[in-house]
Amino acid sequence: MDEFYSHFIYDENGNAAQSGVSSAQFVEDVDKDPVLIFDGLTKNFRYPGWRLGWVVGPKPMIKCMITAGSSIDGGTSRLAQRAALKALEPHYADQELRALRTCFAAKRKLIVNGLRELGVRFPAEPNSTFYAWGCLDQLPKGLDEGHGFFRQALQRKVMTVPGEFFDVNPGKRRTGSSPFSQWMRFSFGPNLDTVATGLMRLSEMVREHQK
């Protein structure tokens, strides 16, 4: 179970959820149940530069992973590990994660409402992580498909990701255009001012194509 985004959770109104989620609540015996839980400081705790993560699971599996990891990169520095102990103290961690959900809930509302005003459709609003998956089919011609939108937005220094990049089609066995060609993934990971600036630039872009 990959739980790197497990604390980015919002309720049905888009507000910060009271707590994160974890599959650990379903593990009865950590050494017997065949479950590996991956987490780290990069996403949930917003410390990407530390490159520190952990795994919870049966001891034999953990031992194999330690052996493989030490052969690949030597492991995380002791300085980072000691600093992480402070970040993971229950009281401090809970406080930080509550603040994180509150901050990201505000950015989520901003980007979903702002993009919807531009004509982007959200059949399902995001209730986790910090990405919004929207459909462009109601936008002006030239912006109503992923690659065109991407190129135009990039000219305005706004980075978006065409939905086609997430189309799972092993071996290209499915022919024809991607069912995600008119979809786009938008991120509200940056700070609030940056998200607002991006929305302003996208709004200007859409208005120019409506003329």
From TrEMBL:
Domain Aminotransferase class I/classII large: 2-193
Reported cofactor(s): pyridoxal 5'-phosphate
Keywords, alphabetical: Aminotransferase, Pyridoxal phosphate, Transferase
Signal peptide positions (record): none
Pfam family, one: Aminotran_1_2
Gene Ontology biological process: amino acid metabolic process
Domain of life: Bacteria
GO molecular function annotation: pyridoxal phosphate binding; transaminase activity
InterPro entries the record matches: Aminotransferase_I/II_large (IPR004839), AspAT/PAT-like (IPR050596), PyrdxlP-dep_Trfase (IPR015424), PyrdxlP-dep_Trfase_major (IPR015421)
Family named by the database record: Belongs to the class-I pyridoxal-phosphate-dependent aminotransferase family.
Protein's UniProt name: Aminotransferase class I/classII large domain-containing protein
